[in-house]
Amino acid sequence: MKKVKKIISYLKGIIIKRISPFLQIVVLFVIALVLLTAYAFREKPVKLFTLDIKQGPVKQIVSPTVLPVGLCAANSRIVQDTIAMDSSKQKFLLIGDSMLEGLGYRLNDYCRQNGHTMNSVIWYSSSSLWYGNCDTLAYFIKKFEPTYIILVLGANELFIKDIFQRDPLVKHILAQIGDRKYIWVGPPNWKDDTGINSLIVKNTGYKRYYPSKNLKYNRFKDGAHPTRESAKMWMDSVAGFIMNKSKYPVLLNFPSDSIKKKSPPTTLLMPNPPPNL
To answer: What is the pairing mode between strands 51-52 and 91-96?
Structure first.
């Protein structure tokens, strides 16, 4: 401690001669901080008579020997939430509005590569208002008996006012899915929406929701629908999410170039909304 005092006294003498009083205080504070930090990393504390001079918490903050309780709990949850990938054959149902048309071709490539099968149902101009007021989804679930549902819905309600009034309809859609594996693929926004993406994820959670609005697309002349090539890359991203980040990961290895391109089996529904809407 005597050596430290001598160093501080020496440095103070130099500082007083060369800089202003304000800067003297700043420099002395920095010197004190450096010395205290160095002392915090000392292997053993210095004794003053019979008492140990307490070391600061800098070392524990910079290089902790024990993780904080909250962080341990968070890491524990991550481990518990990890689900083994299902490599068994899946029966996909790709259903929703017209945005899924381009996705269907690429999903079929993934199915052929990985031993899965699929059916596609396109209800043109549909929305949660339509699917949420009828049993169309339940009908096709019963018909095709899918093991995994990919719902593509929301593009036709990007700009609806009071969108959160549709919350009961979204809940009815999810009730038809029940306990089956699924993800909801959000709309490929071309402008900011009024809340449809927030409404979806509020009901599904982040591990069953793919935020398509975060991607960039080349689009057809209507300015909304992604081109076939852009939809292909969109589906590649969705497949990566399903396999690596979703609540229900299944095997979706990237299709090889040798996979022969085929149109998926598709049911088309015309844009006639349910009665009484």
So the answer is: unpaired
Quote the tokens at residue 186: 């959000």
| Owner of token pair 């909801």 | 184
Measured between alpha carbons, how far is 227 from 229 in angstroms, rounded to an integer?
5
Tokens of 196: 């449809």
Tell me the three-class secondary structure of 33-61, residue by residue: HHHHHHHHCCCCCCEECCEECCCCCHHHH
Look at residue 171 and give its three-state secondary structure: helix
d(CA 138, CA 122): 14
Contact yes or no for 36/1 (Cβ under 8 A): no
What pLDDT, on a 0 to 100 scale, did the predictor assign at position 261? 81
Phi then psi dihedrals of residue 201, to 5 deg: -65, -25
More confident residue, 255 or 57: 255
Output the pLDDT for position 69: 35
Residue 79 confidence class, pLDDT cut points 50, 70, 90: very low
Q: Give the residue, 133 or 15, on which the prediction is more confident.
A: 133
* Token representation of residue 230: 């852009």
Strands 148-152 and 91-96: parallel
- Tell me how far apart the alpha carbons of residues 180 and 248 are, in angstroms, rounded to a whole number: 10
Dump pLDDT digits (tens) for 199-253: 999 999 999 999 999 999 999 998 999 999 999 999 999 999 999 999 999 999 9
**Rg of the chain (C-alpha set):** 30
| Beta carbons of 184 and 128 less than 8 angstroms apart | no
Contact 269, 125 (CB under 8 A): no
Q: Is the backbone of residue 155 left (phi > 0), alpha (psi -120 to 50) or beta?
A: alpha
Q: Residue 135 and residue 250: Cα distance in Å, rounded?
A: 27
